[in-house]
Amino acid sequence: MSTDLSPPASPLVFDVTDAQFQTAVIDRSHTTPVVVDLWAEWCGPCKQLGPMLERAVTARGGDVVLAKVDTEANPEVARAFQVQSIPAVFGLRDGKVVAQFVGVRPEAEIERFLDDLGPSEADRAVQRARVLDGDEREAALRHALELEPTHREAAVGLAELLVERDPSAAIELVLPHRPDPAAEAVVTRAELARGGADDADLADLRAAVARGDADGATLLELGRSLAAAGDYEEGLDHLLAAVQLGGEVREPAREQIVALFNVLGDADPRVQAARPRLARALF
């Protein structure tokens, strides 16, 4: 069947199905604003609006992307948006609908719609921070938070930089964004850092393990301290050893291991290797 609808004009314009919607639209909107165009083959106004949206989005060079959803082939998306008339256009940012309109709109109005949806000055500061290091990265993230104090990515990014140097400040930065997984990971790392050993004590703990006379408390403290410093693999090894020894440290060590699993994620090979070891130690 022929169609007057233009094909996607660039990689920034793509078709999305019901099955792809979570990943291609909801998840992606946490890093790039996504415009969703709900259309159908039989819809004349859709054929007028679609190319206008494609041109406007493509001209912005990646500041925003366009997901096109054929409502006839993908009714679940249409139902989720409670669409009663098409063309229907929704703008998503951070997983939420922040703007919408129905029907054909003039090009100037479409541009204003995209202006409101596109990256803010705080977003641009965070984008700059991604390619910077050290003090420059920290300064860019702090600037983003000055512009937009509730900016999630800026808060988490700055907290990750501060988590070992100033764990209390790191926790304060991400508290408004819990239970976001990235925020929870920062809190876990910060709590580890607050109770971690300094370099001298860490050397003493390692020496005790090397001599073979480390008790469960020593293994627990060493494992926590290594994890706080980002050495998750060795940290998990010592925490698992503490669980195996049993006694009073068995449960605290197990809780610490579970917290690290949450930080690293189920797909991390260190987690996949440690899970069966933890099960054997417990049972």
- The backbone outline, from C-alpha atoms, is elongated
How far is the N terminus from the C terminus? 62 Å
Query: Helix and strand succession?
Result: EHEHEHEEHHHHHHHHHHH
Number of helical elements: 14
Largest β sheet strand count, sense and barrel closure: 5 strands, mixed
Unreliable stretches (pLDDT < 50, length at least 5) are: 1-9
Strand content: 5-15%
Structural category: alpha/beta
Q: Specify the helix fraction band.
A: 55-70%
If you average the pLDDT, what whole number results? 88
User: What is the total tally of β strands?
Assistant: 5
Question: What Rg do the Cα atoms give?
Answer: 25 Å
How do the strands line up in the largest sheet?
A: 1-3-2-4-5
What is this structure's SSE topology?
Elements: E1 13-15, H1 21-27, E2 34-39, H2 44-58, E3 65-70, H3 75-80, E4 88-93, E5 96-102, H4 107-117, H5 121-129, H6 134-147, H7 152-162, H8 167-174, H9 181-195, H10 199-211, H11 216-228, H12 232-245, H13 250-264, H14 269-282
Parallel strand pairs: 1-3, 2-3
Antiparallel strand pairs: 2-4, 4-5
Helix pairs in contact: 2-4, 5-6, 6-7, 7-8, 8-9, 9-11, 9-13, 10-11, 11-12, 11-13, 12-13, 12-14
Task: Give a quick set of tags describing it.
elongated; 5-stranded mixed beta sheet; 5 strands; 283 residues; alpha/beta
Q: What features would you describe in this structure?
A:
The chain has helices at 21-27, 44-58, 75-80, 107-117, 121-129, 134-147, 152-162, 167-174, 181-195, 199-211, 216-228, 232-245, 250-264, 269-282, and strands spanning 13-15, 34-39, 65-70, 88-93, 96-102. The protein is α/β, with parallel strands linked by helices and 283 residues long. Helix 2 (44-58) links the parallel strand 2 and strand 3 (65-70). Helix 10 (199-211) packs across helix 11 (216-228) and helix 11 runs parallel beside helix 13 (250-264). The longest helix has 15 residues, at 44-58. It is elongated and about 80 Å long.
